[in-house]
Amino acid sequence: MNRISSRCRWFAILAMLGLLVASATTTQAAEATDADRVTVNWTDPAQFTEVRYSHAFGQPKPETWLEAMRKTVVQRADKLLKPGQHLDVTFTDVKLAGQYEPWRGPAYRDVRVVRDMYPPRI
């Protein structure tokens, strides 16, 4: 009896491991498919309007906001794309919303003021 019980236990353990490996493989395949559905690229960030004309102290590097933009595009597009569809996006120029207003004084040198006259441009 003890021998049959241990065989059943081993069989159950192996079956669970098999299911675990199968589900992990399926999840990885789904993630790879989702990541391949949306491709986001950009041209030289140093040439973006945001980088060329903004000289504010403590301004985040383009890699920071470009990665946030990439994640947003991938998340939103993935919800809208139908199976089998693919989206390629290339950012050629970026101007974030708002503007630094240095005439407000040193306390505001790293504050981006958002107004209607400072819209974002992509």
Please render the helix and strand layout as text:
Layout: H1 2-37, E1 38-42, H2 49-53, H3 62-80, E2 87-91, E3 99-100, E4 112-113
Describe it.
With 122 residues, the chain is mainly alpha-helical. It has a domain at 36-113. It is 49% helix and 11% strand. It has helices spanning 2-37, 49-53, 62-80, and strands spanning 38-42, 87-91, 99-100, 112-113. The protein has a two-stranded parallel sheet. It is elongated and about 70 Å long.
Widest beta sheet: strand line-up: 1-2
Mean pLDDT reading: 73
> Roughly what fraction of the amino acids lie in strands?
5-15%
Characterize the main sheet. Answer: 2 strands, parallel
Spatial shape: elongated
Structural class: mainly alpha
Poorly predicted regions? 25-30
Radius of gyration: 25 Å
Quaternary organization = single chain
Helicity range = 40-55%
> Could you spell the SSE succession in H and E letters?
HEHHEEE
Distance linking N and C termini: 72 Å
Question: Please, how many helices?
Answer: 3
How many runs of DSSP E, i.e. beta strands? 4
Summarize the structure.
This protein is mostly helical. It has helices at residues 2-37, 49-53, 62-80; strands spanning 38-42, 87-91, 99-100, 112-113. The model is unreliable at 25-30 (pLDDT under 50).
